[in-house]
Design a protein that fits this description.
heterodimer; A: 222 residues; mainly alpha; 9 helices; 0% strand; globular; B: 253 residues; 8 helices
Chain lengths: 222, 253
């Protein structure tokens, strides 16, 4: 377990000291959300209706941007090979890296969403539900994303391929995240059911993601 | 005494697979042509138009088998991937690689026929209901498999990585299968081949399903043969290059 924590701390320290990666993701999130009203026209009613979907999709794209970095740097400088041969199971090492990705990308993006929600005229009463769905849903983004990052480690057109592989896997997360907000906005009591399914998706990806990602990394290292 | 071998073990020898598949392929392909031909004859000349759907019901005889083969295709890819990663069966990778584009084609056929049927019946080509969306995700998964495989030059590695992705994607199959039961959607639940469908429609549908399944197997076998031959040609080319190099160095000395 100490190995897991060490790796987690190392990745978080790297993310914090580098700073630029997080800044890029947050900046991308801000720019994409800011572009939309310019494209759709400043109709506040329309914006407030589509705000949850816009915020969720932009969050997916922003998180997707930072996925390749999860394993790429370690692959380039050889520390990934050390992790493969280390006594700590590679599955746990990947889990630590995915968790670090969630803490360093998923949570900041989630915290930024309410602010962007104000720009899109999102109903303030819906903001807690928006943040709740994102907090519960973003672990799935990091852990499913680790599979994509591992699979595209050696491919020639990594970034675009990663999007093609991972975005379909994100669709259920998106659907249930949006449906929870939709139920809440109509005042119906289906929101908690959607939140529970979202939690189930996240837990399943936390359980399965590291195994698939570790298998993919091992295949490429041998 | 020779040790007993199961069929899959015996098929691990590509030469034996080629012999066997060459022998049975004409029968499967012929059967496919026969079944599809007879089913289409029944569909267009015998089966009555539906009392509600009119003539558009004829699309169903293509749509239902395509949708079923879209899922069966993915099951074959997933099973082959499992066989590759767990048992390292030499033909599993060939099978997975051959099945993916065929499955993708049937998925696309199911989506297109479905939307052509949806326009007159539902009044729209596309709705975002659970069944349609999950089949669309299945198409994306197929495309992801094909793209991932083509992105790597090392074919053995590409096969194994694609297998990992194929196994991750298996989660979509139960979602597609049960989407019409779990969610109250526009797409009607499966009637299966139950007695609620009149025999005049059930028989052609059944024949068409058998025919298209045979077509799938015929295409799959042919694609596997092609892939094996392609790999052989590649190996022979590499050997040729090596021999050329040896000759060249020998002459230089």
């Amino acid at each position: 377990m100490t190995g897991f924590l060490t790796l987690l701390k190392r990745d978080l320290a790297l993310a914090a000291r580098e700073g630029a990666a997080l800044g890029t993701a947050l900046g991308f999130y801000l720019v994409v959300v800011a572009m939309l009203p310019l494209g759709l026209g400043p109709d506040l009613k329309l914006l407030s209706r589509i705000a949850p979907g816009v915020l969720w999709i932009a969050l997916l794209l922003a998180a997707l941007l930072s996925l390749p970095r999860m394993l790429e740097a370690d692959h380039e400088d050889g520390s990934l090979e050390v992790m493969v041969t280390a006594p700590l199971p590679l599955e746990l090492a990947i889990a630590a890296k995915a968790l670090a990705h969630w803490i360093s990308t998923g949570i900041p993006l989630t915290l930024m969403a309410p602010v962007l929600g104000l720009m899109l005229n999102l109903d303030i009463a819906l903001t807690p539900m928006l943040v709740a769905t994102m907090l519960v849903g973003t672990p799935a983004i990091s852990f499913l994303g680790s599979i994509g990052a591992a699979l595209t480690l050696k491919s020639r057109r990594g970034g675009l391929l990663l999007a093609l592989l991972v975005l379909p896997l994100y669709i259920p997360t998106l659907i249930f995240g949006i449906s929870a907000i939709g139920f809440a906005s109509l005042g119906q009591d289906g929101a908690s059911a959607s939140l529970l399914i979202l939690t189930a998706i996240s837990l399943a990806s936390i359980a399965a993601g590291p195994f698939a990602a570790a298998a993919a990394v091992r295949l490429q290292m041998s | 005494m020779k040790p007993m071998q199961t069929l899959t073990q015996r098929l691990a020898n590509p030469t034996r697979f080629m012999e066997l598949s060459r022998a049975i392929l004409p029968w499967i392909a012929g059967g496919a042509a026969l079944f599809i031909g007879y089913a289409m004859y029944l569909v267009f000349f015998v089966a009555p138009p539906d009392y509600q759907q009119g003539e558009t019901v004829k699309i169903m005889y293509i749509h239902v088998p395509s949708a079923w083969l879209a899922m069966m295709g993915y099951s074959i890819v997933a099973l082959s991937s499992f066989g590759l990663l767990v048992f390292r069966h030499p033909l599993a990778d060939v099978s997975a690689k051959a099945a993916a584009p065929i499955g993708a084609a049937f998925t696309l056929a199911a989506l297109i026929t479905g939307s052509l049927w949806g326009k007159p019946m539902w009044g729209t080509y596309w709705v975002w209901d659970a069944r349609l969306t999950s089949v669309l995700i299945l198409l994306f998964l197929y495309l992801g498999l094909i793209a991932l495989r083509s992105s790597l030059e090392d074919e053995a590695l590409a096969g194994k990585l694609t297998a990992v992705l194929a196994l991750v994607g298996v989660a979509i199959l139960p979602i597609i299968k049960f989407s019409v039961d779990w969610w109250n959607t526009l797409h009607q639940p499966s009637t299966g081949f139950t007695s609620t469908v009149d025999p005049s429609m059930r028989t052609p549908l059944l024949l068409s399903a058998i025919g298209f399944s045979l077509l799938f197997f015929a295409l799959h076998l042919k694609a596997m043969q092609t892939e094996i031959l392609r790999r052989r040609v590649k190996t022979m080319r590499l050997q040729e290059v090596e021999r050329g190099e040896r000759l060249f160095t020998a002459q230089a000395e």
